[in-house]
Q: What sequence folds into this?
């Protein structure tokens, strides 16, 4: 974690100075509402202080009423209206594309585009949402919670995809064709750089990040789900009979062999036991579920999904 005083100054500046209005030109020095790009840059830099080490933010440009960013074979289109979806398309995987719906608290917000590629929205409560595309192609969405009375649950969806959660708490969205979008484990930190408990919950076709502060939490809090669009993304869905078959340890060892080639799993005995356990749980689900494996970008995780 970076220097705590630097972190606190950045987040406090973000919370105090942010007053967002629409901008359709990244070259404009100031908007009609008096918020210039230097102030928006405070938010982007403060978020960067808060987040764990990761790839840099990819710069983009405003085209009409949306920001367009290209990085690592990914094109991200981030709307300046939070009521619209964030659309991401990949050159890999047959041109897979997907669209993220943003939390409802920000649906009435208009976004301001920072020169570093961040699009920032503000809710009426004073909380903010910052959307960034990283140079590795992933999409990072940070919610900045400004006080204890602000919303601490943020709901996301992917149009046409259904979310599933592994026992290890990772989440994957899968569509009818087996294409998937993985989400990295959630995190949240307060203004002193202290981790705040947070987790995902699946509610219908949405995933909700829940942030759980306590009396020692110092606001504002930054919370993040990172969407892992970047490839090569490799996954495999078993049908119901295949799922039933890998309840047998020998069959599970054979399945492990496929993953050993893809993600260098060396201890197939342990992984095969994991496969057998998940297959038995899938058979006990009502209705029965099927197993879905991913090797990248989240390796060695198994989800039980709708058959």
A:
């Amino acid at each position: 974690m970076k220097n705590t005083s630097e972190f606190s100054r950045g987040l406090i500046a973000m919370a105090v100075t942010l007053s967002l209005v629409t901008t359709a030109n990244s070259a404009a020095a100031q908007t009609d509402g008096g918020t210039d790009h230097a102030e928006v840059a405070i938010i982007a830099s403060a978020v960067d202080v808060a987040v764990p080490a990761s790839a840099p933010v990819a710069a983009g440009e405003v085209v009409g009423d949306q920001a367009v960013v290209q990085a690592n074979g990914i094109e991200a289109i981030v709307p300046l209206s939070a009521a619209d979806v964030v659309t991401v398309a990949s050159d890999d995987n047959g041109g897979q594309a997907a669209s993220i719906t943003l939390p409802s608290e920000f649906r009435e917000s208009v976004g301001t585009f920072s020169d570093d590629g961040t699009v920032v929205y503000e809710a009426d409560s004073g909380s903010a949402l910052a959307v960034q595309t990283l140079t590795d192609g992933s999409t990072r969405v940070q919610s900045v919670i400004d006080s204890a009375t602000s919303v601490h649950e943020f709901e996301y969806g992917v149009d046409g995809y259904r979310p599933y959660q592994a026992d290890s708490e990772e989440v994957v969205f899968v569509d009818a064709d087996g294409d998937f979008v993985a989400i990295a484990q959630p995190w949240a930190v307060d203004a002193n750089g202290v981790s705040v408990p947070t987790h995902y919950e699946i509610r219908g076709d949405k995933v909700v990040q829940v942030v759980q502060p306590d009396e020692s939490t110092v606001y504002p809090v930054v919370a993040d789900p990172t969407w892992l669009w970047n490839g090569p993304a490799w996954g495999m869905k078993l049908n119901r009979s295949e799922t039933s078959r890998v309840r047998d340890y020998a069959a599970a060892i054979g399945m492990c062999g496929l993953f050993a080639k893809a993600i260098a799993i060396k201890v197939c005995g342990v992984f095969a036991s994991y496969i057998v356990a998940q297959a038995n749980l899938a058979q006990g689900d009502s209705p029965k579920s099927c197993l879905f494996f991913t090797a990248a970008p989240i390796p060695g995780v198994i989800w039980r999904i709708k058959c």
